[in-house]
Design goal:
It holds the Pfam family Nuc_deoxyri_tr3. This is YtoQ family protein. By secondary structure, the protein is α/β, with parallel strands linked by helices. It has a domain of about 100 residues: Rossmann fold, CATH 3.40.50.450. Helix content is about 50%, strand content about 15%. It has 6 helices and 5 strands; from the N terminus they run βαβααβαβαβα. It has a 5-stranded parallel β-sheet, sandwiched between helices. Strand 4, helix 5 and strand 5 form a beta-alpha-beta unit. It is globular and about 55 Å long.
């Protein structure tokens, strides 16, 4: 049994790499958004043409990125959503809601200071974690039944 895992949320830290590294040897395929911030922001205008108005610049990028995001979440067995410290990630909350609406197994990764703000998101998840290592341990347990040592 293998897993397809979509890693959603903040793109400013190496949390994805930590999970992927900790899952070495497991039958897991990881997917996620484009994490090059500039490429993600500018994909719409790079493909569909320049916009003078910043709203439409951002809107084009969001629509093009949504194609990738929807496909990744729809094909995933498990969706991990990371809420970072630095920015409010409305897109991460949207991804969590989309995954919950599709009845995907949802794991939330957040720090304690977001507990109150994310209580409804956490209630829709099957697990709320604090570290990338906890996420990896859940994936290892799901695939092997092995508990952490």
């Amino acid at each position: 049994m293998g897993l397809r895992v979509y890693l959603s949320g903040e793109i400013h830290t190496d949390w994805r790499d930590q999970i992927i590294d900790a899952c070495d040897g497991l039958d897991v395929i990881f997917d996620g958004p484009v994490t090059d911030h500039a490429a993600s922001d500018d994909c719409g205008v790079a493909i569909l043409g320049a916009e003078d108005n910043k709203y439409w610049h951002d809107h084009k990028g969001a629509m093009v990125n949504a194609i990738r995001t929807r496909k990744g979440i729809e094909e995933a067995d498990v969706v991990v959503v990371r809420f970072g410290e630095k920015y409010k990630q409305w897109n991460a909350a949207f991804d969590a809601g989309f995954a919950a609406a599709l009845n995907k197994s949802l794991i939330i990764l957040q720090q304690p200071e977001h507990d109150h703000a994310l209580k409804e998101v956490d209630a829709a998840a099957l697990a709320m974690t604090r570290t990338p290592q906890e996420v990896a341990q859940i994936l290892r347990y799901v695939l092997t039944g092995a508990l952490p040592k």
